[in-house]
Amino acid sequence: MDLQKNKKKQNKFLLVYSVCLVLCFSPFKSLSLLTPLLVVFLLLFYVTVKQTYNFIKLFFFVLLYLLIGFFYFIVNEDFLWTNFFFFLFTFSSYLLLLVSFDSIINRDILNRMTNITVKILFFEAIFGIIQVLYNVVFVTHGFDGGTGDAATGTINPTFTPGDGSASNVYYAISLSALSVLVIVFKLFEKRKLNMYVILTLIFGWLIASVMHSIFLLLASIVINALIVVIFMPKNRLSFLSKQLKIIRATIGITIFIIISLFFFMPKNVDLLNTYYQQTFISNKSRSTKAIATVVTYTELSKNKPYQYYIGLGPGQYCSKASLILSDTYLNSNIPRFLKSVSPDLEKYILPIWLEYKERKWKAGSTYFPFYSWLTVYGELGILGCIVILVSLFSFCRRLLKNVNQENFILVLGIFIVVIYIFLLGIQDNYWEWAQFILPILILVKALYYLAIRRRDVDDLMPNNT
Predict the structure, then answer these.
(1) 284 SS3 class
(2) Cβ atoms < 10 Å from Cβ of 112
(3) Per the domain annotation, does 51 fall within a domain?
(4) What is the average pLDDT value for the chain, to the nearest integer?
């Protein structure tokens, strides 16, 4: 009876995950803001997984969040409650971290989840490739420059080279991160991978020419190689010799991607030198991102000394919540009664942001005067940065403690995607974009449950069936 009940919950969970994927790849971006709350609601009241336990955790989290709000209200004389509550809304994807669903996760449900994910990703990759090829033939007559901006999949199902609302970036990050997770699970299961599908996913990601996505994912792979060598317990390194085939394949794919970029997209690669020159060379005009960073670390911290330690409070500086409510971001056109401009955002960030928007030449999010790490520092201070880094370290440490010959590739894949997301925090306020963060969080958490599970031998030992 219990097995039957658990099977029903697994089917419901699979349906919720499928709905989440469809909504996050839909062209209706406003739906992505609502999707995390919808998923949490469905997990509690439709799937009913650990219902009481999860409800209590969420209740105490909301209570703690309100207490934090009152604390910042006392400390920060410019505190805005509207921004504070909207911040919780834009960060609602991370409520999934509080919801436990380990009791319904096993290899069967993960196999079904990854099969659905592969089908959706394959369709998105094909659609994105067609969008780019259309532009190559009829518009730009080449792969370089901004041609790849047309790759947006069903997030923007048109053939226009860029829609100005980050659809191209959502497409690239979703495709790359979810593909990594799917591939490592299939390798863990020792199931035959369809190389045509894998190559299509990789090509669909590369052809989108979101350069920071490409280089940050490659950087994540390098960082993870160092983590494995330096931090993995020495008594567990002995089995790595049996994983050399996978390691060689990963290195080979990385080298192939880098060579392809230099060959097919030389202008895009050359932009990296321009960004470096304008960001770090003092005798040239610096990027707006660099200017905003310096202003925050100097003027803001000087005028409000407590900000350096604890920040201004959630939603009070350059977070997505604060920018949307200022009505200066992505043509949000919010109702007038909801408009709420943070005084510190208006003083330090908006002048830089509005000046950038007036420029004739733009370079996308690489020059945006806001990004997730700056948001954390500005709104939660050094304390917030430390909490995030300690959480990342604890997460990695627990995975490394549970690594073995069977789950090594699974652990490696989780590491790559988690570090990738953390690195993306230096580019834009990506941590608040539910449209690609939410399905990645769900799949990472499900794979994490499997990777650290020791009590169920069936879930760890490879299955060749």
Answers:
(1) coil
(2) 16
(3) yes
(4) 83
**N residues, the chain:** 465
Of the CA atoms within 13 Å of residue 26, those in its CB half-sphere come to 16
Q: Does residue 340 lie within any of the structural domains? A: no
Q: What is the distance between the terminal CA atoms of the chain, rounded to a whole angstrom?
A: 26
Smallest Cα–Cα separation from 411: which of 399, 401, 419?
Answer: 399
Domain that holds residue 129: 2-275+371-460
Query: How far is it, in rounded angstroms, from Cα 396 to Cα 393?
Result: 5
Count: domains in the chain = 1
162: pLDDT confidence band, cut at 50, 70 and 90?
low
Instruction: Please report whether residue 316 resides in a domain.
Output: no
**Which among 139, 120, 113, 103 has a CA at the least distance from the CA of 200?**
120
Do residues 232 and 401 touch, judged by C-beta distance below 8 A? no
Task: Give the DSSP letter of residue 347.
Answer: I
Q: Is 100 exposed, middle or buried (0-12, 13-18, 19+ CB in 10 A)?
A: middle
299 Cβ partners below 8 Å, 6+ apart? Answer: 348
Q: pTM higher than 0.90 for the full model?
A: no
Q: What is the pLDDT of residue 458?
A: 42
Cα separation, 180 vs 214, whole angstroms = 13
Could you give the CA distance from residue 54 to residue 49 in angstroms, rounded to a whole number? 8
Distance between CA atoms of 57 and 18, rounded to whole angstroms? 25
**C-alpha separations of 286 from 102, 280, 290, 435 in Å:** 48, 7, 6, 31
**Structure confidence by residue, pLDDT tens digits, 315-340:** 999 999 999 898 887 666 677 777 88
At 160, the pLDDT band (50, 70, 90 cuts) reads confident
Q: Is the distance from CB of 401 to CB of 451 less than 8 angstroms?
A: no
* Residue 101 in this model has a pLDDT that exceeds 70: yes
pLDDT surpassing 80 at residue 57: yes
Is residue 288 domain-resident? no
- Tokens matching residue 251: 């290195």
